[in-house]
């Protein structure tokens, strides 16, 4: 039996021609399965900078994927203080914090203008149950999210502010490479204040940390543009290896 005619106009707006489809869909997914996914994905209007996708306490109704633009997830304390718990780049699922309890523990805020796909959770579960490749991909994405949470914890336990900042830039660089962007010439979608709240540091400390890394020749900074000038030194700081040990490894390695 032949496949039904393809509505190219619709698919160009959907998963088949999405620039980040390889990040959130399994490789080699069939035409029929792709159409089923397209049926449940809702195309949201462009999201304005500062707009919320969901708030803390909202029930889990959908997960979201940014086709472009970036988001932060924020937890608000009883005193009204904000703690940034994560950043989300194009192709990364937003909303996984509610998987355990069915209720969001944080809110998702657009850092830039963005376009997102909204995927109703109940329909996603039904389709994933019938498509083993999609179910496997979802588990992989959840695992990546857990890995980023662990990376965040590693940042917070570092005593030196410049090490936290180096680890942050190192991890962001790797994630940008994964979505096909430059891992050396970074354009930060988040503010220094967001970074400070993410790393558990004062804003002034983050500013001094960027300045010190620039003075040491590790990075070059111009506004939100960061050029990684010395990748080896950034890696050393991110992984916490003392300079003397790093030189010894270079000599005997």
Automatic annotation (TrEMBL):
<keyword id="KW-0678">Repressor</keyword>
<dbReference type="Pfam" id="PF13545">
    <property type="entry name" value="HTH_Crp_2"/>
</dbReference>
<feature type="domain" description="HTH crp-type">
    <location>
        <begin position="159"/>
        <end position="232"/>
    </location>
</feature>
<dbReference type="Pfam" id="PF00027">
    <property type="entry name" value="cNMP_binding"/>
</dbReference>
<keyword id="KW-0238">DNA-binding</keyword>
<dbReference type="GO" id="GO:0003700">
    <property type="term" value="F:DNA-binding transcription factor activity"/>
</dbReference>
<dbReference type="InterPro" id="IPR012318">
    <property type="entry name" value="HTH_CRP"/>
</dbReference>
<keyword id="KW-0805">Transcription regulation</keyword>
<dbReference type="InterPro" id="IPR050397">
    <property type="entry name" value="Env_Response_Regulators"/>
</dbReference>
<keyword id="KW-0010">Activator</keyword>
<dbReference type="InterPro" id="IPR018335">
    <property type="entry name" value="Tscrpt_reg_HTH_Crp-type_CS"/>
</dbReference>
<dbReference type="GO" id="GO:0005829">
    <property type="term" value="C:cytosol"/>
</dbReference>
<feature type="domain" description="Cyclic nucleotide-binding">
    <location>
        <begin position="25"/>
        <end position="145"/>
    </location>
</feature>
<dbReference type="InterPro" id="IPR036390">
    <property type="entry name" value="WH_DNA-bd_sf"/>
</dbReference>
<dbReference type="InterPro" id="IPR036388">
    <property type="entry name" value="WH-like_DNA-bd_sf"/>
</dbReference>
<dbReference type="GO" id="GO:0003824">
    <property type="term" value="F:catalytic activity"/>
</dbReference>
<dbReference type="InterPro" id="IPR018490">
    <property type="entry name" value="cNMP-bd_dom_sf"/>
</dbReference>
<keyword id="KW-0804">Transcription</keyword>
<comment type="subunit">
    <text>Homodimer.</text>
</comment>
<keyword id="KW-0973">c-di-GMP</keyword>
<keyword id="KW-0021">Allosteric enzyme</keyword>
<dbReference type="GO" id="GO:0003677">
    <property type="term" value="F:DNA binding"/>
</dbReference>
<protein>
    <recommendedName>
        <fullName>CRP-like protein Clp</fullName>
    </recommendedName>
</protein>
<dbReference type="InterPro" id="IPR014710">
    <property type="entry name" value="RmlC-like_jellyroll"/>
</dbReference>
<dbReference type="InterPro" id="IPR000595">
    <property type="entry name" value="cNMP-bd_dom"/>
</dbReference>
<keyword id="KW-0843">Virulence</keyword>
